[in-house]
TrEMBL record:
Domain of life: Eukaryota
Domain Kinesin motor: 1-59
Lineage: Eukaryota, Haptista, Haptophyta, Prymnesiophyceae, Prymnesiales
Annotated GO biological process: microtubule-based movement
One family name in Pfam for this protein: Kinesin
Protein name per its UniProtKB record: Kinesin motor domain-containing protein
Any one Gene Ontology molecular-function term assigned to this protein's record: ATP binding
Matching InterPro entries: Kinesin-like_fam, Kinesin_motor_dom, P-loop_NTPase
Entry's family note: Belongs to the TRAFAC class myosin-kinesin ATPase superfamily. Kinesin family.
PANTHER family per record: KINESIN-LIKE PROTEIN KLP-3
GO cellular component term of the entry, any: microtubule cytoskeleton
């Protein structure tokens, strides 16, 4: 949608675009790496990945310059958030979550 200059991006239609929402909104510099498998069993998924990469190649954004922001404070906040996420992940692993994906696992 962004590549087609559509002002509405259908984020709800894809988990991936939901995850990338802040990066695709035009406020950040974004790089995308697309990984594909050469095995025939993965042909369809690789094709979808390559098509996604091709669409991403047409997206143009301009990063917003934040005036007055303190990179040190931002870094401290990010470090704190990361530590909180790691602690939460440890609790989840201790509770038995995250071992393996089952056949009924949600994306």
């Amino acid at each position: 949608a962004v590549g087609l200059r559509d002002h509405h991006v259908p984020y709800r239609e894809s988990t991936l675009t939901q995850l990338l929402r802040s990066s695709l909104s035009g406020q950040a510099c974004t790089s995308v790496v697309v990984a594909v498998a050469s095995e025939a069993a993965h042909t369809e998924e690789s094709k979808c990945s390559l098509e996604f990469g091709q669409r991403m190649g047409s997206v143009r954004t301009r990063a917003a310059v934040v005036v007055g922001a303190d990179a040190g404070v931002e870094e401290d906040d990010t470090e704190r958030d990361l530590e909180q996420a790691k602690a939460e992940l440890s609790k989840m692993e201790a509770a038995g979550y995250g071992e393996k994906f089952g056949a009924a696992a949600l994306p």
